[in-house]
Amino acid sequence: MKVIHILVAVLSLFIFALPCFSESSKSEAFVNSHNDFFHLLNSDPDDIKIGYYYQPETEEDGGPGEFELQKAFSRLELPLPTSNDAYFRMAMKYDYRNYDFSSSSGRAGSLSSEALHKIELGTGYGVFLTKDLLFTALPTFGIYSNMDGLSEDDFQFHGEFQFVYRLNPGAAIVAGAAYNEIFDDTPFYPILGVRILSNDGKTHLNITLPTEIKLAYNDTPQTQYYIGGWISGDQYHYEGDLGDFNIQVRENRVGGGVIQWFNDVVNIQLEAGAQINDEFEFETKGTNLFQNNLETAPYIWVALGFAL
Length: 308
Fold this sequence. Notes:
This protein is mostly beta strands. The chain has helices at about 1-15, 25-40, and strands at about 50-60, 65-80, 85-100, 115-130, 135-145, 155-170, 170-180, 190-195, 205-210, 210-220, 225-240, 245-260, 265-275, 280, 295-305.
């Protein structure tokens, strides 16, 4: 329970710290100075996203494993200005993943349905070293577990930092590094990227290697269409009837979607595509499931976004 206490304490710190960063004069001056920079950096200005993801029956490539995945997810990240050129970053994530293995019955022993949880909190900082050069860093602390009792193996520290240099109003380059469990054999890896925004502001290219390539087009100020490819992943600790072991998840997503804004605050996002050569690996007694990567499978998700 010490981990829960730490998370509650950090969350409480966030809540009580908010008034310190909410002075309207600071926020207004910060936005006026750097709004164009952030528009170039990110085509999706959501501060909060809440959604549902569905992946129908997915089979192990060359093996007997099979599952259906449903996921609920939420994200929050707020830039809270501390001066005209610096800001505090507050980030929170929660993922609930429910794996239904009933289609593998008879081959999976007592494996039927399992839920995995990710609870992640981060506090970071960003500062404009010049009007065209941003440095930002975000360390995070989280629980990655089936929540059947908690131990030291259930929590992890991750983090990343980036330098973003704006070459001109329509182009920027990104360089940095990240530490996480997306690539289980390489937890620490470099980040390299580029941002390109068309002269009319409608077309946006976001490349952040090795995890994201996205091309977005704003047909109107309220409607955005996009296509892209994304790599994400985590390592979860499982402790229960099947034993005590880690589950490695890596998802390679290729798809496209649309974001429709109802007003300046609320939008809905729909996306569909394919999961290609995903990884879902663990070892436990009594089953030889999921020793190989997964076959290609379709997915769909819907989310509500909020810009504060």
